[in-house]
Amino acid sequence: MATRKLTHVDKAGRPAMVDISAKAVTAREAVAECRLRFPAAVAAALRKAGMATAKGAVVDTAIIAGTMAVKRTHELVPFCHPLPIEGCRFDVAWAGESVLRIECGVRTTHRTGVEMEALTGATVAALVVYDMCKALSHAIVLGPAKVLAKRGGKRDFGGARA
Q1: Looking at 10, 91, 131, 156, which residue is catalytic?
Q2: Are 126 and 141 in contact (CB under 8 A)?
Q3: Exposure of 159 by Cβ count < 10 A (0-12 exposed, 13-18 middle, 19+ buried)?
Q4: Which of 56, 13, 33, 30 is nearest to 149 (CA)?
Q5: Is 131 a catalytic residue?
Q6: Which residues on adjacent β-strands are paired with residue 36?
Q7: CB–CB of 155/107 below 8 Å?
Q8: Distance in angstroms (rounded) separating the CA atoms of residues 2 and 59
Q9: DSSP E strand boundaries for 5-127
């Protein structure tokens, strides 16, 4: 088994952007999720209100913000390359009585993958849900956030379906 090493560190141990110039251009996709756990009474109130608060439509606002974040990931995460985003989709649904699941799938055709874009989209969407619901409770918990699948690079895993 090959030894893995950190990719964002140069030979001198300093931070460095990965040089992707020798990589092949391929179709790449990634799917990530972030969950929010609400106090039971807050989840019940949100369900009853159709996921709307005094600030507006929670899910719609979260999807718009998450999409904007996907497109700007390279501005937020220092060593991410700017990528042409060819597809971005969200699935927001209850995954239990008090857990909201936000899934973000991202596609591109490029030399590097879109895991960071998918994670950024899912987590920023979750932050927006928190922001819009915090008047109901500050006991809302974000996480875990994780990559569920990726395809198109050296190591594929999961069933990417962006």
Answers
A1: 131
A2: no
A3: exposed
A4: 30
A5: yes
A6: 100, 142
A7: no
A8: 43
A9: 26-37, 52-53, 56-57, 87-94, 99-110
CA nearest neighbour of 62 among 87, 38, 34: 34
pTM for the model:
0.91
Q: Render pLDDT for 96-139 as a digit per residue (tens, 0 to 9).
A: 999 999 999 999 999 999 999 999 999 999 999 999 999 999 99
The whole-number pLDDT of residue 154 equals: 82
Give the per-residue pLDDT at 135: 94
Q: How many residues does the chain have?
A: 162
Please give the backbone phi and psi of residue 107, each rounded to the nearest 5 degrees, phi first. Answer: -130, 145
**Band of the pLDDT at 68, cuts 50, 70, 90?**
very high
From CA 123, how far away is CA 150, in angstroms rounded?
17
Between CA 161 and CA 158 the distance in angstroms is: 9
